[in-house]
Amino acid sequence: MDITTLLSADRIACKPDVSSKKRAFEQLAEMLAIGQQVLSAAAIFDALTSREKLGSTTIGNGVAIPHACMSVTQPRGALLLLEDGVKMDTPDRKPVQLFMAILVPTNQAPDYSELITQLTSTLIQKALIEQICSQHDQQTLLDHFISLFNPPSHPFEGALAA
Question: The whole model's pTM is what?
């Protein structure tokens, strides 16, 4: 699964006024509901919070990756970056500033753990999180996030092989 195809600018919120875990999950659900007809924001919120009750989706360094399998046609993501973060059950007790929520079609559940692993291994890096958290608008945040998972190739890469 290509992480860079999960996001679009309309499913990114950069530093909105959110001060609770519940409101963060509501905002994520609202964004994940954009542009699809199958699920309501309320159903998505319920799925994300139900999954969260099974165990915290925080990974440390101010990051959480809430996720759920649902009846969507393709995987989709939403990115929420908060100014100060919200209190959650985190391994390092730091407030969560960055939420990367993922919905995966039920029939793609096996691929979903690979996606979470890929996100976790990148987003656990403190220096990268500091770079992400320094962004101030949706498009810049999207571009920066995509560059982490899809770095540009070297411009002379093809020429050397010829």
Answer: 0.87
